[in-house]
Specification:
Blueprint (H helix, E strand, L loop, with lengths): L6 H15 L9 E3 L8 E3 H17 L4 E4 L3 E3 L4 E9 L1 H6 L5 E8 L2 E9 L4 E6 L2 E6 L2 E4 L12 E4 L7 H13 L2 E4 L2 H9 L5 E7 L1 H4 L2 H7 L3 E4 L9 E6 L2 H12 L8
Parallel strand pairs: 3-5, 11-12, 11-13
Antiparallel strand pairs: 1-2, 3-4, 5-6, 6-7, 7-8, 8-9, 9-10, 13-15, 14-15
Helix pairs in contact: 1-2, 4-8, 5-7
Length: 266
């Protein structure tokens, strides 16, 4: 495996992104849609400028690495690929809700190895490097660990919106939701970070892109959790994704989600 960048470089990239996103948060920012009539897919200058700035820093330090970003697509090639979502949660961003974050991930030969989620408004960062998964808040650094609540009846489940579930996958989600203690909505990448932090036990999303999940995979895995597509395969390419605090909960949740479902990537 190639020598990986250290956590200091992840923080440097997050600093660069924060300087673009935070000054624009809770301002009268112009909002465009990346799609035509019928579906609102918002994008702002915060998304665009943060990605431009992160890319420039990566290209200066690692010119041989590929970069895949939500706003500017794929550039470069090779075994090392940075995967960027400059503002994961543009909808809460434009609503003034601090559950968005900048996602910065690195895959090597297709497998997520490093990840950073930066939330500058709450002054929190969640990241995974070679030495584990970590959180920093107001200068205090702590190691991240998922929790083990034992059974589904004690689980907190999260998804962004029930509106995105259809057909057999909706039936599977309904079965899962009926089996847990509590279901919450609308946390975007922040909810996945809370799986790693031991506050949420299951996070499921019906249709993620690579840039939505790559940065979060190593954070959750190195905290002790499990992340796969709901067909049990690796999640780096996106699709219907489940993140779980423990392997046991993951197996139980997959069973409920998959009854009658043929899960495929979008």
């Amino acid at each position: 495996m190639p020598k990986l960048p250290g956590a200091d470089f992840l923080h440097r990239l997050a600093d660069i992104a924060d300087r673009e996103t935070l000054p624009r948060f809770r301002t009268d920012l112009a909002v465009d849609s990346k799609t035509g009539a019928g579906y609102f897919d918002p994008v702002t200058d915060a998304d665009r400028q943060a990605e431009i700035a992160i890319r420039a820093a990566i290209e200066a330090e690692y010119p041989d690495h590929a970069i895949l970003g939500e706003e500017l697509g794929l550039t470069g090639s090779g075994s090392c690929r940075w995967v960027l979502d400059p503002v994961d949660g543009t909808r809460p961003f434009i609503c003034g809700l601090p559950v968005w974050g900048t996602l910065i991930g690195l895959t090597v030969h297709g497998r997520a190895e490093l990840g950073m989620m930066s939330q500058p408004f709450t002054r929190e960062r969640f990241w995974a490097s070679a030495d584990g998964a970590w959180c920093e808040y107001a200068g205090k650094r702590e190691r991240l660990f998922t929790r083990d609540v034992g059974t589904l009846s004690r689980v907190i489940l999260h998804t962004n919106s029930p509106e995105r579930y259809h057909g057999e996958l909706k039936q599977g989600f309904d079965r899962l939701a009926a089996s847990v203690r509590m279901t919450r909505y609308g946390g975007e990448c922040y909810a996945f970070a809370m799986v790693a932090a031991g506050r949420i036990d299951l996070a499921v999303e019906p249709s993620l892109q690579s840039y939505d999940i790559v940065a979060l995979i190593p954070i959750i895995e190195k905290a002790g959790g499990v992340v796969t597509r709901i067909d049990g395969e690796r999640a780096e390419e996106g699709g219907p994704v489940l993140a779980s605090a423990t392997a046991g909960l993951h197996e139980e949740a997959l069973h409920l989600l998959n009854s009658g479902v043929n899960a495929r990537a979008p």
